[in-house]
Amino acid sequence: MAVTALLEVRLDPDRLPEAHRVLAETLVATRGFDGCLNVKVTADVDDPAHVVVVETWESREHDAAYRAFRASPEGRSELGTVLVAPPTLTVLEHLDI
């Protein structure tokens, strides 16, 4: 069953153009990862440094494999260099109701 992962990040407000570039580069691998169905980037209308990345995955297993990849040396990105706080991840199960 598909899942949606919400990755909430706080970008450095003084470096937004660079942060957007780093985020875009990071998401190339995300979008190309096996099981990734969709990725959208949203920003708080009152705080553009508050960004939520909305990822849809074929299954919880695909999402877990992606998280393991990101935790490995091969999957590391530069995203951490433009954050002012650790990201928050919420994984949501799709309900058929």
Automatic annotation (TrEMBL):
This is Antibiotic biosynthesis monooxygenase. The keyword RNA-binding does not apply. PROSITE patterns: ABM. Pfam families: ABM (PF03992). GO terms for molecular function: monooxygenase activity. Residues 3-92 form the ABM domain. It comes from Rhodococcoides kroppenstedtii. Keywords: Monooxygenase, Oxidoreductase.
